[in-house]
UniProtKB/TrEMBL annotation:
This is Transcription elongation factor GreAB. Gene3D superfamilies: Transcription elongation factor, GreA/GreB, C-terminal domain. The keyword Protein biosynthesis applies. Keywords: Elongation factor, Protein biosynthesis. GO terms for molecular function: DNA binding; RNA polymerase binding; translation elongation factor activity. It comes from the Bacteria. InterPro entries: GreA/GreB_C_sf (IPR036953), Tscrpt_elong_fac_GreA/B_C (IPR001437), Tscrpt_elong_fac_GreA/B_fam (IPR023459). Coiled coil: none annotated. One of its GO terms (biological process) is regulation of DNA-templated transcription elongation. Pfam families: GreA_GreB (PF01272).
Length: 149
């Protein structure tokens, strides 16, 4: 999930991860009878959060060059004509009202690197292929300035 180039996230996503880490790292009530599986799951999540935060790029907007990449708000048109605007980044409880897609999601992997007008396809769990066209890509900060929550 991590890479050497960093993982783009909003400041809200980082705060949420830090709060989750604090909660997971808090001393546990031994009398709660936590199962070994639960302890291992908690430790795995702590490790995952540490790894993510170690490479986090927080709120630094990518270049305003129209290329779809993490940190950009993308507007796409699906093959059926529906359009959607979303943030390509780490999922969080961002209050902007935007849907957030991970760059590692099928849509995220397909659309990354696209320029406006480019069409890409990606598989869905049913085995079908979905076609999507990039209409617009703007840095998250610019989008927030133009569309305050």
């Amino acid at each position: 999930m991590t890479d050497t180039h960093g993982v783009w996230m909003t400041a809200q996503a980082k705060e949420k991860l830090l709060a989750e880490l604090a909660e997971l790292s808090a001393p546990q009530d031994v009398s709660a009878g936590e199962e070994v599986d639960e302890q291992q799951a908690r430790q795995a999540r702590i490790h995952q959060i540490h790894d993510l935060l170690a490479v986090a790029v927080v709120g630094q907007d990518p270049p305003d060059d129209g290329v779809a990449e993490p940190g950009m708000v993308l507007t796409v048109r699906y093959g059926d004509g529906d359009t959607e605007t979303f943030l390509l980044g780490v999922r969080d409880d961002d209050q902007s009202g935007l849907e957030v897609y991970s760059p590692q999601s099928p849509l995220g992997m397909a659309i990354t690197g696209a320029r406006p007008g480019e069409q890409r396809s990606y598989p869905v769990p049913s085995g079908a292929s979905v076609t999507v066209t990039l209409l617009d890509a703007v840095p998250y900060g610019r989008h927030q300035t133009q569309h305050p929550a």
